[in-house]
Design brief:
By secondary structure, the protein is an alpha/beta fold. Helices cover 47% and strands 12% of the residues. It folds into 3 domains: 205 residues, Vaccinia Virus protein VP39 (Rossmann fold); 96 residues, Orthogonal Bundle (DNA polymerase, domain 1), CATH 1.10.150; 30 residues, no CATH class. The chain is built from 17 helices and 7 strands. A 7-stranded mixed sheet has the order 3-2-1-4-5-7-6, sandwiched between helices.
Length: 351
Protein backbone atom coordinates (compact mmCIF):
# COMPACT_ATOMS: atom_id res chain seq x y z
CA UNK A 1 0.00 0.00 0.00
CA UNK A 2 1.26 3.48 -0.86
CA UNK A 3 1.51 5.47 2.40
CA UNK A 4 0.97 8.81 0.69
CA UNK A 5 -2.27 7.59 -0.85
CA UNK A 6 -3.53 6.33 2.49
CA UNK A 7 -2.71 9.47 4.45
CA UNK A 8 -4.20 11.79 1.84
CA UNK A 9 -7.66 10.27 2.32
CA UNK A 10 -7.52 10.45 6.11
CA UNK A 11 -9.53 13.30 7.67
CA UNK A 12 -9.08 13.68 11.44
CA UNK A 13 -12.38 14.16 13.25
CA UNK A 14 -13.07 17.18 15.51
CA UNK A 15 -9.52 18.40 14.95
CA UNK A 16 -9.82 21.96 16.27
CA UNK A 17 -11.97 20.84 19.17
CA UNK A 18 -9.42 18.15 20.06
CA UNK A 19 -6.47 20.57 20.09
CA UNK A 20 -8.46 22.95 22.31
CA UNK A 21 -9.54 20.17 24.69
CA UNK A 22 -5.96 18.89 24.97
CA UNK A 23 -4.73 22.48 25.57
CA UNK A 24 -1.69 21.69 23.41
CA UNK A 25 1.21 24.06 24.04
CA UNK A 26 4.84 24.36 22.98
CA UNK A 27 7.20 22.01 24.74
CA UNK A 28 4.42 19.69 25.90
CA UNK A 29 4.50 15.90 25.98
CA UNK A 30 1.51 14.02 24.57
CA UNK A 31 0.35 10.48 23.90
CA UNK A 32 -1.86 9.56 20.94
CA UNK A 33 -3.19 6.13 21.81
CA UNK A 34 -4.83 5.56 18.41
CA UNK A 35 -2.53 6.87 15.67
CA UNK A 36 -4.64 5.76 12.71
CA UNK A 37 -3.73 7.92 9.73
CA UNK A 38 -1.70 10.29 11.91
CA UNK A 39 -3.91 13.37 11.46
CA UNK A 40 -4.36 14.19 15.14
CA UNK A 41 -0.73 13.29 15.87
CA UNK A 42 0.54 15.72 13.23
CA UNK A 43 -1.63 18.52 14.60
CA UNK A 44 -0.37 17.86 18.14
CA UNK A 45 3.25 18.07 16.98
CA UNK A 46 2.55 21.28 15.05
CA UNK A 47 0.82 22.93 18.01
CA UNK A 48 3.45 21.77 20.54
CA UNK A 49 6.40 22.97 18.47
CA UNK A 50 9.03 23.94 19.39
CA UNK A 51 10.04 21.31 21.87
CA UNK A 52 6.93 19.15 21.81
CA UNK A 53 7.14 15.36 22.07
CA UNK A 54 4.69 12.68 21.01
CA UNK A 55 4.34 9.01 21.89
CA UNK A 56 2.11 7.40 19.26
CA UNK A 57 0.50 4.00 19.79
CA UNK A 58 -1.53 1.79 17.46
CA UNK A 59 -2.36 -1.91 17.45
CA UNK A 60 -2.36 -1.95 13.64
CA UNK A 61 1.18 -2.30 12.21
CA UNK A 62 0.06 -0.72 8.92
CA UNK A 63 -1.03 2.39 10.82
CA UNK A 64 2.44 2.68 12.32
CA UNK A 65 4.04 2.59 8.86
CA UNK A 66 1.70 5.23 7.48
CA UNK A 67 2.02 7.50 10.51
CA UNK A 68 5.81 7.20 10.36
CA UNK A 69 5.77 8.57 6.81
CA UNK A 70 3.31 11.33 7.67
CA UNK A 71 5.27 12.47 10.75
CA UNK A 72 8.70 12.24 9.11
CA UNK A 73 9.41 15.97 9.55
CA UNK A 74 9.00 15.51 13.32
CA UNK A 75 11.01 12.30 13.53
CA UNK A 76 13.26 13.53 16.36
CA UNK A 77 10.23 14.44 18.47
CA UNK A 78 8.20 11.28 17.85
CA UNK A 79 8.20 7.74 19.22
CA UNK A 80 5.84 5.26 17.52
CA UNK A 81 4.92 1.94 19.15
CA UNK A 82 2.98 -0.96 17.61
CA UNK A 83 1.02 -2.03 20.68
CA UNK A 84 -2.49 -2.15 22.09
CA UNK A 85 -3.41 0.81 24.27
CA UNK A 86 -4.53 -1.69 26.92
CA UNK A 87 -0.79 -1.73 27.77
CA UNK A 88 -0.56 2.07 27.96
CA UNK A 89 1.02 2.33 31.39
CA UNK A 90 3.63 -0.33 30.62
CA UNK A 91 4.53 1.51 27.40
CA UNK A 92 4.81 4.86 29.16
CA UNK A 93 7.07 3.43 31.86
CA UNK A 94 9.19 1.45 29.37
CA UNK A 95 9.98 4.56 27.33
CA UNK A 96 10.14 6.91 30.33
CA UNK A 97 7.27 8.92 28.84
CA UNK A 98 5.41 10.18 31.90
CA UNK A 99 3.99 12.33 33.33
CA UNK A 100 2.47 13.90 30.23
CA UNK A 101 0.44 17.00 29.40
CA UNK A 102 -2.24 15.23 27.41
CA UNK A 103 -3.53 11.83 26.24
CA UNK A 104 -5.85 11.30 23.27
CA UNK A 105 -8.04 8.33 22.33
CA UNK A 106 -9.78 8.52 18.93
CA UNK A 107 -11.70 5.25 19.04
CA UNK A 108 -13.06 5.16 15.49
CA UNK A 109 -11.72 3.07 12.64
CA UNK A 110 -9.37 4.98 10.36
CA UNK A 111 -9.78 5.41 6.61
CA UNK A 112 -6.91 2.94 6.27
CA UNK A 113 -8.95 0.20 7.92
CA UNK A 114 -12.25 1.01 6.25
CA UNK A 115 -10.98 1.63 2.74
CA UNK A 116 -8.37 -0.90 1.91
CA UNK A 117 -6.35 -3.09 4.24
CA UNK A 118 -8.32 -6.19 3.26
CA UNK A 119 -9.18 -7.31 6.78
CA UNK A 120 -12.93 -7.10 6.49
CA UNK A 121 -13.77 -4.03 8.59
CA UNK A 122 -16.04 -2.60 5.91
CA UNK A 123 -19.22 -4.28 4.68
CA UNK A 124 -18.95 -2.34 1.41
CA UNK A 125 -15.94 -4.30 0.08
CA UNK A 126 -15.38 -8.01 -0.27
CA UNK A 127 -12.55 -9.25 1.94
CA UNK A 128 -11.75 -12.14 4.28
CA UNK A 129 -13.82 -12.05 7.44
CA UNK A 130 -10.91 -11.11 9.71
CA UNK A 131 -11.43 -7.79 11.60
CA UNK A 132 -8.27 -8.05 13.71
CA UNK A 133 -6.56 -4.71 14.30
CA UNK A 134 -3.31 -6.62 14.68
CA UNK A 135 -3.04 -9.61 12.29
CA UNK A 136 -0.84 -11.45 14.79
CA UNK A 137 -3.55 -11.73 17.43
CA UNK A 138 -5.60 -14.90 17.70
CA UNK A 139 -9.33 -15.08 17.03
CA UNK A 140 -10.90 -13.71 13.82
CA UNK A 141 -14.44 -12.67 12.95
CA UNK A 142 -14.71 -15.81 10.81
CA UNK A 143 -13.92 -17.93 13.87
CA UNK A 144 -16.77 -16.31 15.80
CA UNK A 145 -19.27 -16.43 12.94
CA UNK A 146 -18.60 -20.04 12.04
CA UNK A 147 -17.94 -21.63 15.45
CA UNK A 148 -20.32 -19.91 17.86
CA UNK A 149 -23.70 -21.39 18.65
CA UNK A 150 -26.84 -19.61 17.49
CA UNK A 151 -27.53 -18.44 21.05
CA UNK A 152 -23.99 -17.15 21.46
CA UNK A 153 -24.14 -15.26 18.17
CA UNK A 154 -27.48 -13.69 19.06
CA UNK A 155 -26.10 -12.57 22.43
CA UNK A 156 -22.96 -11.02 20.91
CA UNK A 157 -24.85 -9.20 18.17
CA UNK A 158 -27.47 -7.90 20.60
CA UNK A 159 -24.99 -6.91 23.35
CA UNK A 160 -22.18 -5.38 21.30
CA UNK A 161 -24.14 -4.25 18.25
CA UNK A 162 -27.35 -3.25 20.04
CA UNK A 163 -29.14 -5.01 17.20
CA UNK A 164 -32.85 -5.66 17.68
CA UNK A 165 -32.89 -8.41 15.05
CA UNK A 166 -30.04 -10.36 16.63
CA UNK A 167 -31.89 -13.69 16.86
CA UNK A 168 -33.09 -13.54 13.28
CA UNK A 169 -29.58 -12.69 12.04
CA UNK A 170 -27.94 -15.40 14.15
CA UNK A 171 -30.38 -18.00 12.89
CA UNK A 172 -29.68 -17.09 9.27
CA UNK A 173 -25.91 -17.09 9.79
CA UNK A 174 -25.98 -20.59 11.25
CA UNK A 175 -28.08 -21.84 8.34
CA UNK A 176 -25.60 -20.49 5.76
CA UNK A 177 -22.30 -21.44 7.37
CA UNK A 178 -19.44 -21.57 6.58
CA UNK A 179 -19.19 -17.80 5.95
CA UNK A 180 -15.70 -16.55 5.19
CA UNK A 181 -16.06 -13.23 3.35
CA UNK A 182 -17.58 -9.88 4.23
CA UNK A 183 -20.02 -9.75 1.31
CA UNK A 184 -21.24 -13.28 2.04
CA UNK A 185 -22.02 -12.13 5.59
CA UNK A 186 -23.69 -8.95 4.30
CA UNK A 187 -25.94 -10.92 1.95
CA UNK A 188 -26.80 -13.29 4.80
CA UNK A 189 -27.84 -10.39 7.04
CA UNK A 190 -29.87 -8.80 4.23
CA UNK A 191 -31.73 -12.07 3.71
CA UNK A 192 -32.51 -12.13 7.43
CA UNK A 193 -33.77 -8.55 7.90
CA UNK A 194 -34.08 -6.89 4.48
CA UNK A 195 -31.74 -4.69 2.48
CA UNK A 196 -32.23 -1.30 4.17
CA UNK A 197 -33.56 -0.06 7.51
CA UNK A 198 -33.41 3.72 7.98
CA UNK A 199 -30.14 5.62 7.55
CA UNK A 200 -27.76 2.77 8.31
CA UNK A 201 -27.08 -0.42 6.40
CA UNK A 202 -28.59 -3.55 8.03
CA UNK A 203 -25.11 -5.07 8.42
CA UNK A 204 -23.69 -2.10 10.36
CA UNK A 205 -24.52 -3.27 13.88
CA UNK A 206 -23.48 -6.88 13.32
CA UNK A 207 -20.11 -5.78 11.91
CA UNK A 208 -19.66 -3.46 14.88
CA UNK A 209 -20.39 -6.29 17.31
CA UNK A 210 -17.93 -8.67 15.66
CA UNK A 211 -15.16 -6.07 15.54
CA UNK A 212 -15.63 -5.19 19.21
CA UNK A 213 -15.53 -8.83 20.29
CA UNK A 214 -12.55 -9.76 18.10
CA UNK A 215 -10.43 -6.88 19.45
CA UNK A 216 -11.84 -6.82 23.01
CA UNK A 217 -12.39 -3.11 22.49
CA UNK A 218 -14.61 -2.31 25.45
CA UNK A 219 -12.53 -4.24 27.98
CA UNK A 220 -9.33 -2.62 26.68
CA UNK A 221 -10.88 0.85 26.84
CA UNK A 222 -11.88 0.49 30.49
CA UNK A 223 -8.36 -0.66 31.41
CA UNK A 224 -6.66 2.07 29.38
CA UNK A 225 -8.69 4.96 30.83
CA UNK A 226 -7.49 4.10 34.33
CA UNK A 227 -3.89 3.85 33.15
CA UNK A 228 -4.14 7.15 31.25
CA UNK A 229 -5.20 8.99 34.41
CA UNK A 230 -2.14 7.64 36.22
CA UNK A 231 0.20 8.89 33.47
CA UNK A 232 -1.15 12.44 33.39
CA UNK A 233 0.70 15.22 35.16
CA UNK A 234 -1.08 17.93 37.16
CA UNK A 235 -3.71 19.58 34.92
CA UNK A 236 -2.88 17.18 32.11
CA UNK A 237 -5.81 16.58 29.77
CA UNK A 238 -7.56 13.30 28.91
CA UNK A 239 -9.54 13.53 25.65
CA UNK A 240 -11.62 10.70 24.18
CA UNK A 241 -13.53 10.64 20.89
CA UNK A 242 -16.03 7.77 20.68
CA UNK A 243 -18.36 6.69 17.90
CA UNK A 244 -21.09 4.54 19.40
CA UNK A 245 -23.08 4.48 22.61
CA UNK A 246 -21.23 1.54 24.19
CA UNK A 247 -17.88 3.37 24.07
CA UNK A 248 -19.35 6.72 25.02
CA UNK A 249 -21.15 5.22 28.00
CA UNK A 250 -17.87 3.78 29.35
CA UNK A 251 -16.04 7.10 28.89
CA UNK A 252 -18.83 9.17 30.40
CA UNK A 253 -19.20 6.88 33.41
CA UNK A 254 -15.42 6.78 34.01
CA UNK A 255 -14.93 10.54 33.83
CA UNK A 256 -17.95 11.31 35.98
CA UNK A 257 -16.86 8.83 38.65
CA UNK A 258 -13.27 10.09 38.69
CA UNK A 259 -14.59 13.66 39.02
CA UNK A 260 -16.42 12.77 42.24
CA UNK A 261 -15.18 12.54 45.81
CA UNK A 262 -17.21 9.97 47.68
CA UNK A 263 -18.73 7.24 45.49
CA UNK A 264 -20.41 5.27 48.27
CA UNK A 265 -23.94 4.01 47.52
CA UNK A 266 -26.69 6.56 48.24
CA UNK A 267 -27.82 6.44 51.85
CA UNK A 268 -24.46 5.34 53.26
CA UNK A 269 -24.28 7.28 56.57
CA UNK A 270 -20.46 7.61 56.62
CA UNK A 271 -18.07 7.50 53.67
CA UNK A 272 -16.21 4.21 53.58
CA UNK A 273 -14.85 4.33 50.00
CA UNK A 274 -12.06 6.88 50.61
CA UNK A 275 -12.37 7.82 46.95
CA UNK A 276 -10.84 11.16 45.94
CA UNK A 277 -11.62 13.06 42.75
CA UNK A 278 -8.74 12.74 40.29
CA UNK A 279 -10.33 14.48 37.29
CA UNK A 280 -12.21 17.68 36.58
CA UNK A 281 -14.66 17.63 33.68
CA UNK A 282 -13.73 20.13 30.96
CA UNK A 283 -16.93 19.98 28.93
CA UNK A 284 -20.09 19.35 30.89
CA UNK A 285 -21.86 18.47 27.64
CA UNK A 286 -20.48 16.14 25.03
CA UNK A 287 -18.91 17.87 21.99
CA UNK A 288 -20.19 16.82 18.57
CA UNK A 289 -19.14 17.75 15.01
CA UNK A 290 -20.62 20.82 13.34
CA UNK A 291 -22.96 20.47 10.39
CA UNK A 292 -20.19 21.76 8.11
CA UNK A 293 -17.76 19.07 9.31
CA UNK A 294 -20.35 16.34 8.85
CA UNK A 295 -20.97 17.59 5.32
CA UNK A 296 -17.24 17.48 4.51
CA UNK A 297 -16.64 14.20 6.35
CA UNK A 298 -19.81 12.09 6.77
CA UNK A 299 -17.87 9.55 8.87
CA UNK A 300 -17.64 12.15 11.64
CA UNK A 301 -21.43 12.11 12.09
CA UNK A 302 -21.46 9.84 15.15
CA UNK A 303 -18.35 11.28 16.87
CA UNK A 304 -18.63 12.32 20.53
CA UNK A 305 -15.78 14.10 22.37
CA UNK A 306 -15.35 14.18 26.15
CA UNK A 307 -12.47 15.76 28.05
CA UNK A 308 -11.21 15.96 31.61
CA UNK A 309 -8.29 17.48 33.50
CA UNK A 310 -6.05 15.76 36.03
CA UNK A 311 -6.19 16.91 39.63
CA UNK A 312 -3.64 16.33 42.38
CA UNK A 313 -4.98 14.26 45.25
CA UNK A 314 -3.53 13.76 48.72
CA UNK A 315 -2.39 10.30 47.64
CA UNK A 316 -0.42 11.82 44.75
CA UNK A 317 1.33 14.22 47.10
CA UNK A 318 2.00 11.97 50.08
CA UNK A 319 5.58 10.81 50.27
CA UNK A 320 6.69 13.23 47.54
CA UNK A 321 8.87 15.70 49.39
CA UNK A 322 9.39 18.01 46.42
CA UNK A 323 5.66 18.47 45.79
CA UNK A 324 4.93 18.99 49.48
CA UNK A 325 7.71 21.58 49.56
CA UNK A 326 6.26 23.44 46.57
CA UNK A 327 2.77 23.50 48.09
CA UNK A 328 4.14 24.77 51.40
CA UNK A 329 6.20 27.46 49.68
CA UNK A 330 3.19 28.53 47.60
CA UNK A 331 1.09 28.94 50.75
CA UNK A 332 3.82 30.87 52.59
CA UNK A 333 4.48 33.25 49.70
CA UNK A 334 0.85 33.50 48.53
CA UNK A 335 1.82 32.63 44.98
CA UNK A 336 -0.64 33.31 42.23
CA UNK A 337 -2.04 30.26 40.44
CA UNK A 338 0.16 30.43 37.26
CA UNK A 339 3.36 30.45 39.31
CA UNK A 340 2.22 27.44 41.33
CA UNK A 341 1.22 25.49 38.23
CA UNK A 342 4.54 26.20 36.53
CA UNK A 343 6.54 25.06 39.55
CA UNK A 344 4.48 21.89 39.96
CA UNK A 345 4.81 21.10 36.27
CA UNK A 346 8.59 21.31 36.56
CA UNK A 347 8.51 18.93 39.53
CA UNK A 348 6.33 16.40 37.66
CA UNK A 349 8.42 16.46 34.50
CA UNK A 350 11.62 16.10 36.47
CA UNK A 351 10.26 13.07 38.36
Amino acid sequence: MNPSMSTSSHVPVLLEETMKALAVHSGGRYIDCTLGGGGHALAILEHSSPGGQLLGIDADPEAIKIAKAKLESYRSSTLLVNENFANLQTIGIKYDFFPVHGILFDLGLSSLQLDGNGRGFSFQRDAPLDMRLNPSQGITAADIVNNSSEAELAYLIRTYGEEGYSRRIARRIVSERPIKSTLHLVRTIERAVGRRRGRIHPATKTFQALRIVVNQELENLEVALKQATDLLGFEGRLVVISYHSLEDRIVKRFMQQEAKGCICPPGTPVCICSHKARLRLINKRVIIPSESEIKLNPRSRSARLRAAERLITQDDCSGTAEIESVLAEAEARAWKRPALLKKLEMVFLAA
